[in-house]
Amino acid sequence: MLSTTDNGLLTKMSTPISSDRTIVLDLETQKGFHEVDRKKLHLLKISIVCIYDSKTDAYLSFEEKEAAKLEEILKQADLIIGFNIRDFDMEVLAPYLITPVKSFPLLDLMVEIEKVRGHRVSLQSVAQATLGTGKSGSGWDAIQLYKDGKIEELKKYCLDDVRITKEVYEYGIKHGKISFLSNRDYQSHEVAVSWGNALKELREQKKAESPFPTSLF
Fold first, then answer.
1. Which residue would you say has higher pLDDT here, 183 or 176?
2. Is the model's pLDDT at 215 over the cut of 60?
3. 68 to each of 75, 95, 97, 104, how far by Cα in Å?
């Protein structure tokens, strides 16, 4: 079954990943680290942001000028999922948003894997070992697409990364593990995950950090 998004994109409908409103997010940038200091991520500037929204069961894309529209959706999310989203995507997005990025409920799949393995892995390595498929390109390719004005191709690439991230998350929820291909020994390694508890843990953490009592009695 196909659905037309507000952005005019035809997307294949799939089974929603949660009864809560879950957003899977990925973005691409206008510039690369050969042009911008790694400590100044906001200077990379967004070229496109793509999401999967479980509420509407649709994939959407937002250009730089549409950041306010994106923020309204993110503010309603119970959980925002991404791969390296905490220290990259949200930091690039920060200048475009009124809402402080640290207030959003995030699940960073890369960070969760790093907690178990002790080192970072790439989305490509996880997709290949877990799903048997790979990314359709690289971040460098995405930057070049933007500079060449090939915005529809850029959207397609970014949406594909969102789909892969969503499928990795769903696999981890269903099986309690994912795999990655190591660039050290070129072998596939399994990683136990408990992503199904993420939303509960975030809510408990937020409750614990609240300066106000839940009851006066």
1. 176
2. no
3. 11, 11, 7, 15
Residue 139 or 212, more confident: 139
CA angle 211, 214, 216 (to 5 degrees): 105
Tell me, yes or no, whether 187 lies in a domain.
yes
- Six-digit token pair at 128? 């290949």
Would you say residue 190 lies in a domain?
A: yes
pLDDT tier at 55 (50, 70, 90 boundaries)?
Answer: very high
Q: How many domains does the chain have?
A: 1
Supply the CATH number for residue 31's domain.
3.30.420.10
DSSP 95: G
- pTM over the 0.70 mark: yes
Q: What pairs with residue 3 in β-bridges?
A: 11
Name the residue range of residue 177's domain. 2-209
Residue-wise over 131-158: b if at least 16 C-beta within 10 A, else e? Answer: eeeebbbeeeebbebbeeeeeebbbbbb
